[in-house]
Amino acid sequence: MATLRELKARIGSVASSEKITGAMKMISSAKMHKAEQALRQLRPFRDQVESIMANLADSDASFSSPLMEERPVQHALLVVWGSDDGLCGAFNVNIFKQLLQQISALRQRLGNDAHITVCAIGAKMAKAVAKISLPGVDTMDAGAVNSKSADTEVRDFTWRLRDMFIDKKIDLVEAVYMSFKSMGRQRLETAQILPVSPSAFSDSNKPGSTRPYIFEPSPEAIFDKILPMYLLAIMQDIFTENRASEQAARVMAMQAANDNAQKLRDQLNLEYNKLRQAAITTELLDILGGQVKD
Prior knowledge:
6 helices, 2 domains, Pyruvate Kinase, Chain: A, domain 1, alpha/beta, Helix Hairpins, 5-stranded mixed sheet
């Protein structure tokens, strides 16, 4: 049975842990709101690019681009986003499970002859991906890019994937990441990045969303310029959504840790008070026993 001194020390330790998790929750919440704000600032750019693409698709011109070339898939690339830091609950575990399901789905769809490469973004996810041992599946280094990368690194990574696809080193690029909806709601997503599907931007062509345009110099020239911008907008959106989801998961994890610490502290306080009361009662009985003897 613990002594009063030991219980007091444990209560102090739990109280310190409670303060730490509370502070970490506040920091993660601030980072999440920052990522959420960046996501809101990014959305108008993506919406505008999609609107231009929808208007181009509505024109009478015919378009072709190496980025839209659909060919038999011999080599598929799966890019999976995770976190570089821990203490975010089951965030990385859930994404990794989705990755394994997507690898299995690709294998069934493409057959055993197709080669699958996995590129992990984020130190925690890269560590998990390195342990994958499946036939016809290998890994690719993400290079300087990570889950916290700024716009320049994201752009360089996007152009790297674009060049690999154009050079026919890979025939398909898919993304596995966590989509941010709100602090309490994130959803696992799997999206095709390359080749760019015409339906990706024609779906945004809602009634009344397009206007008659006069294209200058030509729809084809504008299309060639805007398509890489569309690809970059998609990639920036994925990075930002995953970053916001990571911080939201960390906020929830720190809240759960804080609640558990508070419950433990309450239990220890109750045990401490009971033990202290028993000690006081024993001392009183000893005092009263001594007076009776006198």
